[in-house]
Amino acid sequence: MLDYFQYVLDPDGGIGSEAEKMIALPFGDGLQKWLQLSPSFNIDKVTTPLLDVGLGPHSLLFMWLPYAMMHHLNKPVELVMLNMDDGLGTLSAEHVLTNPGFRLASQGGSVDWFRFWLQGYEDPNPGKKTQYRRWEALRHLQEQNQRQTH
User: Fold this and answer.
1) Which of 5, 16, 138 is nearest to 64 (CA)?
2) N or C: which end of the chain has fewer CB within 10 A?
3) What's the rounded Cα separation, in Å, for the pair 81 and 57?
4) In angstroms, rounded to a whole number, what is the distance separating the alpha carbons of residues 53 and 62?
5) Which bin fits 87, alpha (ψ -120 to 50), beta or left (φ > 0)?
6) Sign of the Cα pseudo-torsion (105, 107, 110, 114, in order)
């Protein structure tokens, strides 16, 4: 998302370096560019429900800002952390999921999310009932937000 929080968390390059190339240094005059161009400073304009998925605790930290901001703005958002424990006491840092279980959880969850929001479909699997109750509450929240803006 190239948000300010991610920039501050990565002072040695990586995301910070990418953000500087795409936006600017977030200091002085560059801060005004961040206010205009960074998605995190424009999240109040988001009208689409957001599924925010972290691949372990470190990744979840990078997903926290959009989740928290949308939550504070009373917008529909779901935060999911896939426990990427490889069974050896370490966490996988892969971005492209190769573990079939993790891939199914990530991609299957995304398919469920999109089908729910775009088609109104709910998988009849009883194990997914709790997820759909949460999402129905988010849909109610989305409807309330739409009534308030019209």
Assistant:
1) 5
2) C
3) 7
4) 10
5) left
6) negative
pLDDT in tens, 97-119: 777 877 888 899 999 999 999 99
Q: Could you tell me if 39 and 98 lie in one domain?
A: no
pLDDT in tens, 56-86: 787 788 889 999 999 999 999 999 988 765 5
Q: Given a cut of 60, is residue 90 above it in pLDDT?
A: no
Q: What is the pLDDT of residues 135-149, one digit of tens each?
A: 999 999 999 988 887
The total number of structural domains in the chain stands at 2
Token representation of residue 64:
């926290």
C-alpha dist (Å) from residue 35 to 18, 31, 44, 50, 100: 17, 6, 12, 21, 40
Same domain, yes or no: 120 and 62: yes
